[in-house]
Design brief:
CATH architecture of the largest domain: 3-Layer(aba) Sandwich
Order of helices and strands: HEHEHEHEHEHEHEHEEHHEH
CATH superfamily of the largest domain: Bordetella uptake gene, domain 1
Radius of gyration: 20 Å
Structural class: alpha/beta
CATH class of the largest domain: Alpha Beta
Strand content: 15-25%
Helix content: 40-55%
Number of strands: 10
CATH topology of the largest domain: D-Maltodextrin-Binding Protein, domain 2
Shape: globular
Distance between the termini: 18 Å
Length: about 325
């Protein structure tokens, strides 16, 4: 989608959803109601108001289009100095920016202010798989890359595809173009492919597999967080198995680039307050999210690294030139 078309669409959409004066702060959800970005805006906005971080209720504006590109274009071209605007974001946002999916837009055109929860990445095999640990699976791929195929719910080059590649890179395996990946229609299909023996492993998110754990059909080799996930303490992290990889579908926010540094730090403080609240702890528990809090400059630096790594991996596998 061209910049011109995105700009035209964003102008029309903004006219259709102009905020009223009753709301001092606005959160744009770059999708229709009901999805992850909408959840982030509504939950974070509500809690900000409930715990007194904002004086008035937060307005949520749904601005779907171009997989998040319309909202991004709106901020960059129309509202790049708005101090009272935040936009819901996730790993999909940075992946698309790294792969130039927003028509030439780049991650440095906004400021990423914080992540306060995440859906952890996982590597899963069937219960009867010969691989008992992540290390055994990695060794098998290094010995014979064609012997293991991963199923995942994203397309080739998407976040699910990149997760095992990050692990293999961390293991010193550089010929990642030989790693087999099959994109299917969602995590449930990816598990079905693996349990059925059509693929040897599944790559996805914790929320996609929790319903399958009690059945005994799968073995979770690793969760890609710094620490084990509360409620699933028997699942080891990739990190503790010797693979220094953090791969989480984080939930957070970006804000316009041209706001002041002081306002950026205020936003960081507000998100930290939400992350620390009992209300957010309950929201995470109710929606299968794990703790993952990075705010302010620390989060921006982490995002910069993720974008660079995603871009490099995407070039290696031929998703971008």
């Amino acid at each position: 989608m061209s910049k011109t078309l995105l700009r035209a669409l964003s102008s029309a959409a903004v006219l259709a959803v102009t905020a009223t004066s009753a709301f001092a702060v606005e959160c744009i959800a770059p999708a229709n109601p009901g999805g992850g970005w909408d959840f982030t805006c509504r939950q974070v906005g509500k809690i900000m108001y409930d715990i007194g971080q904002v004086a008035d209720p937060v307005q949520v504006t749904n601005l779907a289009g171009a997989g998040g590109g319309l909202a991004f274009s709106t901020v960059v071209n129309e509202r790049n100095s708005d101090p009272d605007l935040m936009v819901a974001a996730s790993s999909a946002t940075t992946t698309r920016l790294a792969q130039n999916a927003f028509g030439g837009a780049t991650a440095d055109q906004v400021r990423f202010v914080g992540a306060i929860g995440a859906d952890p990445g996982v590597i899963v095999v069937a219960a009867d798989s010969p691989y008992q640990s992540l290390g055994e699976l990695v060794d098998a791929i290094k010995a014979d890359p064609g012997s293991v195929a991963f199923a995942g719910g994203s397309a080739v080059g998407g976040f699910d595809h990149l997760k095992p590649l990050q692990v293999l890179k961390a293991a010193g395996f550089d010929d990642i173009t030989k790693v087999r990946y099959i994109g299917v229609d969602g995590g449930a299909d990816a598990i079905t492919q693996t349990v059925g023996g059509f693929t040897q492993a599944m790559t996805g998110d914790m929320s996609e597999i929790v319903g399958f754990i009690p059945t005994g059909d799968i073995r979770v080799l690793a969760v890609m967080t710094d620490e084990r996930v509360p409620g699933f303490e028997d699942i080891p992290t990739a990190k503790e198995q010797g693979f220094d990889v953090r791969a989480v579908n984080w939930r957070g926010m970006y804000v316009p680039k041209d706001i002041s540094d002081a306002r950026f730090q205020e936003w960081a403080g507000m998100l930290q307050a939400v992350a620390d609240s009992a209300e957010w702890q309950q929201a995470m528990a109710d929606n299968g999210l794990a703790p993952f809090t990075l705010v302010g400059d620390e989060f921006q630096a982490w995002v910069d690294g993720v974008v660079a790594e995603t871009e490099a991996l995407s070039r290696e596998i031929g998703v971008i030139q």
